[in-house]
Amino acid sequence: FQGKLVPIFWSVSKGFYRAIPPFSRRTCTSVPDKLLLIARKKDIRLRQLEPKNASIEVDMVVPLDGLKSAVALEWCSESDYIYWTDVGRGSISRAFLNGSNQATIISTNLVTPAGIALDWITDKIYFTDSGTNRIEVASVDGKKRSLLIWQGLDKPRDIVVDPINAKMMFWSDWGETPQIERAGMDGIGRESLVTSGLLWPNGLSVEENRLYFVDGGTKILEYINFDGTGRKTLINSGLLHPFGLDIMGNRVYWSDWETFSVESADKRTGRDLKTIISNTSDLMDIRIFHRNRDSIYSPCGIDNGGCSHLCLLNPSALGYSCACPIGVKLTRDNRTCSDAPKNFVIFAHRIDIRQISLDMDYQIDVVLPMPGLSNVVAIDVDRKTGYIYWSDNVEDIIIRSSVDGMEIEHIIDDSIDGVDGLVIDSVGRKIYWTDTGRHTIEVSELNGSNRAALVWKDLDSPRGLAINYESGLMFWTDFGNIPRIERAEMDGERRVKIVESKIIWPNALSIDETEKRIYWTDAHHNIIESSDFDGNYRKVLLSDVPHPYGIAVSDDQVYWTDWKTKALHVAPKNNLNSSRMLVEKLEGLMDVKVIKEEVDVTKNACGEFNGNCSHLCLRNSASFSCKCPTGLKMKAGSDRDCEILPESYLIIASRNGIGQISLESTDFFDVVLPIENVHGGVALDYHYNDSRLFYADVNIDVIKSVNLENPSETRTIVTGLDIPNGLAVDWIANNIFWTDTGLKVVEVAKLDGSFRKIIIKDNLNDPRAMIVYPKYGYIFFADWGVRPGHAARIERCYMDGSSRTNIIDSNLGFPNGLAIDFQKNKLFWADALEDKIESADFHGKNRHTVVSPAVHPFGVTLYKDFVYYTDWFNKSVFRASMLTNSGAEEIRHGLPGALEIRSVAASRQPKDYSPCGNENGGCTHLCLFREKSYVCACPDRMQGECKTEPLFSVPLRQPGEPEEPPEPSDDNDGYGLSFVVKDSHAQAVIIATAVLTVILVIVVIAILVLVFNSRRKTDNRTSNSGNRFMLTFTNPNYNGTDGQHNGESSVESSAGSSKRIWKRLKYDRST
Length: 1071
Fold this sequence. Notes:
Keywords: Cell membrane, EGF-like domain, Membrane, Repeat, Signal, Transmembrane, Transmembrane helix. The chain is mostly beta strands. It has three domains: 39-292 and 300-304, TolB, C-terminal domain (Neuraminidase); 344-595, Neuraminidase, CATH 2.120.10.30; 648-911, TolB, C-terminal domain (Neuraminidase, 6 Propeller). The protein is built from three helices and 80 strands. The strands form 22 sheets. A four-stranded antiparallel β-sheet has the order 5-4-3-26, with no helix packed on it. Strands 6-7-8-9 form a four-stranded antiparallel β-sheet, with no helix packed on it. Strands 10-11-12-13 form a four-stranded antiparallel β-sheet, with no helix packed on it. The protein is elongated.
């Protein structure tokens, strides 16, 4: 079996797999205590040394995933872990000897990890990186890490440690001056041991105060005492290219690249050569696993030596020292590390965020432990708390986190579309950002509350952003059709253009606080330029910059990122031509900020009490001003107190939030109401007088109630639903109605969810949107009727479910989004399949097209002379005038999952009379109005004693109110394209014209029939499979799942495309 791989069967014992020899599968051997570990780039193998049956030598492959180029090995007998470096992946990993529990423990800031060593006394791993020329140390789980050696290294290779006697580490270096060095295990006391007679010093091993080493160039195996004396050659023949090296007992083992073997010899004489493995390619490091490592008392073993980070052994009298994370200094007690660097550069690298400490002698970038980054673009730091804020333009989100990545919070995660610039006002405690997609500059509190748009008019593509709190000014770049740099006060007022000429692609901005100048990058002109705060005294500071993007200015340095050089550059502020690369070989470098520890002498202009502002207090050049969040106005006669709610606004249900758009301003900016745990909002309605919002969540199958004046006051009122698709509030009787597509019912309850009752359960196919008119006791609801043989329809019934009538049951696709014009007694609906919005009276007569085309409409609502509707596919809200045929205009975009919409205003819930609004009609439980009478209904699950007769009499109508609802009228209602002719002569002319038109049509049809019959034989020869218009449909799917369905045609007509898009609107919560 020598040199061959054979099937190995395993049984588990204490986390270790015991090997059962292939020739005998009856009994297990004892747990092996002498194993040869071999790294072979693509795999790691084991071979048992000194097996009971010496005639059997088997290589066992450890079952590991994803090895690309494994080089160095280490092991721990206490835990049965093996550790390895992978230079192909730039990582260090570990797993049990049986291959289980595999994990990458270090993967950042590694390029070519070539050597690894284990301090089994204090549980640390030491490793070299010949790509970065560093030696580092980390805890065995990789969570704590420190830099030991970073200067004077060329190509460090192998590394070994002696934690028992010398408490030192040794490493080989392949560089231009090959050498072997040593230092304390904390990196202190560095000195060279071997500097001559070396070419490619490779593997190292220590034993009994001796250091053994092999050289792949001189082809020699030597040893030397720890103090550098007694250098001797052990083997100088038979070695072709030795690489790995280890010692066990009286024998020395090594791997050889050119002999494709692992061999051993007597460590004292170099004789008695034996071949352990032969004819095996890609041999790298080797290690001997055994269970006889010595153990001693360690000063780091008690309370980590008092160290806050890493306790490292050294040969001093104390025996150890404390080490801090890369870039962080020890405090004066020499035990405790600072929380973070005091002075540093931080920059965005799209897939990670990196920091370079300016406190240390070295300047090394460290990847901060921020999980789940997709495309980090803009970044800044709160100077008071140290929290890091950044924008992710794939996720469309603004996030903040502590520097250790443990406290992550989403600040803005709705209604953003490309945040390219972001800055923290550490004094005023605000966050400012530019939004390229929404064409805005916005501000909020640091926690994301009180969000307001400051600048939006005539903005094209705002990008870079900077503020100067002392002057109360903010600056931004706009790289749109008319590139420019603008300035405004930090409250958005007194806006002015300061740079308009000789500027093409202005990217980032930074402010020189000392000289009161702005710096910017222009990627078209390939320059870094500067001017004063008024745009005067412009000066090109550096030319021929390949593609500058981010820029940051400190007291004496300028830092910038460059897309083409893939580097972070730094230069003295007074001479940018003498620049150097601080970090290189990184694609996608974006924003950069420099953070300096400063004495905070700037006071918050808003003082301790927020300037007595009810919401936002913002700095300006004079002092401060009070601002209202988007959509709100100041109270009448006040310049500090904002209204709690707009008088009129839209509310929009989306997948993960409830949006609000004020109808009192012309900007139509949306805000997301601070309602937690919205998972799948589809349907909603409100009670105006109670300031309460109700919404159905199809992901968790509940209906919730929200206090609009305090959205944190949210509670679940209805549970046990399947797919609640429609919802309507009777604001007079204080009842709530809803449709359930899954259960195929229509239900009612009181506004608190009590007294729940099914009012319709028969002949429902796919009930969807609904609306109510309490004045007449009407319920209107849409049924998509998508089952075969069941046509889509809109029904009307009374509030107890009686007197059901199909008022619209022809020329319907997917009717949705119902709305009522209470003045003209008209019903409006959106047809999601036919892409239009229509209206009719309450009997289905006088049907008109109001908006066509209305692409992908879902929800529809009315306010004054406008109809508003959502476009779920394009994530937009449109409006169209009902008085003109001017078409629809988009008033807001970037609303993911925009579904139901309602206009909130007093006029949208008229104060009509209903007997059920008068002391609940005398009913004990539910009072349900039905035009000429009402019923007292009992809930399906009895709650207390219920009576079906009122306890006292309540009048059905107020005095003077008509007894009957209005009948359908043939008069033009002003909606759509129909008209009414009242002149009798004109009517006669129209009738005669109509008769002639009918005759002409009959003639044309006859001609077409003849032509059709003449070609019928030819057409019949054609296969029916070529019919372009054979289309089948499934229900729309709100989850947006793509893909073809059975029976779907591939026709590329606009109608076919619409139908295919709407197949994506069917619920399928399994995906």
